[in-house]
Amino acid sequence: MVGEDIAVHEDGNVTGTIHYVKEYKNFSSVVEEQSGHYFPFKLTKSGTVMTIEKNGAAEKDKENITFDSDIILRVDKDDTFTIKVGEETADDEVVTLKFCKANMEEDSLAISMNVLSDRNIVLETSPHKYTQEELSQMTVKDIKALAEDSGIKITKVIKTDVINEFLEGQA
After folding, report:
1. Under a CB-based contact definition with an 8 Å cutoff, are residues 138 and 48 in contact?
2. Are the C-beta atoms of residues 103 and 16 closer than 8 Å to each other?
3. Cβ pair 72, 27 in contact under 8 A
4. Does domain 7-123 have CATH number 2.40.30?
5. What share of the chain is helix, strand, coil (3-state, %, to 5)?
6. In the predicted model, is pLDDT for residue 120 greater than 80?
7. Of the four, 101, 130, 152, 154, which is 20 to 30 A from 32 by CA?
């Protein structure tokens, strides 16, 4: 489905080759969706529900659906997908993928799904890096709770010291 040169950059841009695939009957029962460019990946963050937004909107059958870490998207060059997960509602954005820089292989070079093996891309979801400004607007109690959730040990008590220790711990 994807070439060896495929890469997902920190800003969400996908670069490299996405092969044109035909006869992918396991993707959809809708014939028109059985050919195209497919992008397989695996989420490392989990939840109980997820939402898949395509170009800023989620179709009804892609909103607050049962979580599945293995995802295959049917993509075009102008598509942007945002994946959100959560426990009751999928409102925590995990990743946004933009395909405008990907090399979409032509239809004439199509590969039949019968001879193609899947190659999943594992997307490591990195935690949000907090800035000094963000932490300064929080209480010491909130910063310490956030640190505990992030596995950062805080030993200080003065807010400035707590912030500095947090920033060092997330580096």
Report:
1. no
2. yes
3. yes
4. no
5. 25, 35, 45
6. no
7. 101
